[in-house]
Amino acid sequence: MAERRSAREVLALVTDAGSFTDIPCVVREPEPDGPLGWQGYDASRARAAERTGEEESVVCGTARVEGAPAVLIAFEFGFLGGSLGGRTGDRLEAAYAYAREHGLPVVPLIATGGSRMQEGMLALTQLQRVARQSALTREAGLAQIAVLRDPTTGGGWATLGAGADVVLALPGAQVGFAGSRVRPPDADPAAYTAQAQLAAGAADAVVAPAELKGVLGAWLRLLSRGTAGRRPAEPAPVPAALGKATLPATGWEAVRRARSPERPRAGAYLDAYFTHRAGIGGDRCGGRDDDGMLCGFGERDGRTVAYAAQTGRATRPAGYRTAARLIRLADRLGIAVLTLVDTPGAANDAEAERQGAGAAIAEVFAAVAGARVPVTTLVVGEGGSGGALALAAPGNTWITPDGYFSVIAPELAAAILKRPPEEVEATAGQLRIRPQDLVELGVVRGIAEHADRADRPGT
Predict the structure, then answer these.
(1) What is the mean pLDDT of the chain?
(2) pTM over 0.90
(3) Which of 26, 166, 327, 424 lies in the 20 to 30 Å Cα band around 237?
């Protein structure tokens, strides 16, 4: 179990000293024993206030996190289990409205058991208020970064937590829709943890308390640099080519070079391109992003660029869904996108089909096609069929001398045409998949300048 801190203690943990200021809020006058007349409710609230020093289960205010301004919502679990009631809803609504009025991101620091049963359905309907405020803030192009403390259950998890753009969790925190007292008696407790939610693709990272301030500050800086609602984002510069500088002589040489284990992969390109970066993980549909896709946001020349990069493996459905999630988030925040294409193709095993490979690829096609921010694409290795094309920006796709793009792998093309294996190399040439062929055909815009020949990547 994670260490439990009070609302004020967790605020002190993540905010710059002396920067927190409570947000003024007009809350409803409490009715005697609440709207249901629940006997003893007033006494319970009085004991909670005396014990915690708080008037409600949330503390809302503005502060700086490593210099980055934000609205923070800290739950006080000691106040009736951090439960949501009508007055909690009043405070949450005021906090989100303040964030939109001042153009600030929102950081819920969640520790709640769910809705307050002493207020019945009126407490449960506060979740609709929260969802509405979150949606309005999303439409305003402001980021929401949730921190899951112990416990994060019920409606608090299903709205403020799981609905955030980036989800960070503390190690050992209980996280799940069902609280510990309402789960099936035979339920595996390991499924209701921060680590389990990370594995299921519902959280982006598990962060130690000592590292939380730094990680949260980095995310706030990255996600607050967009141009949502102000002006179009500038396209991301094309990365410099890191591999060989010469072009392949034949189609088969292009294939061999792209498949070479010595060729630079996504990690090398991202490290060269960004000063620092932070990854997102998970498709929010039960799938953790696979090794075939890296997604996140990075800093380059003082600006933020989102990235979705294939790593040379067959990309699985969770990877495609995570990429689509990344592109949609960047589009909403007004952040330009860089995609790196490098895959022999989409995973096509039976499990991939059961996980909805076609629908996942369709999500990426739609996200790229519908993006209002510019998308820049560089093919750094294999460009295998539709599984690669889904990430490619129409009209702004570039290629390195180590890359190729093909409607189908040469071996498979030869097999379909019933050609013998010795004709695979010739088939590769007929497909015209070399970088220079693709430029001539108009499939790609150009060949990226090599890093040894330029101080800066090509544009």
Answers:
(1) 94
(2) yes
(3) 166
Smallest Cα–Cα separation from 378: which of 338, 438, 330?
Answer: 338
403-440 pLDDT, tens digit per residue, is: 999 999 999 999 999 999 999 999 999 999 999 999 99
Q: What is the structure's pLDDT at 289?
A: 61
Cβ atoms 300, 271 nearer than 8 A: no
Tallying the residues shown for the chain, one arrives at 459
Match 């995609």 to its residue by tokens. 339
Give the tokens for residue 339. Answer: 């995609």
32 has a pLDDT exceeding 80: yes
Quick: pLDDT tens for 284-310: 988 776 789 999 999 999 999 999 999
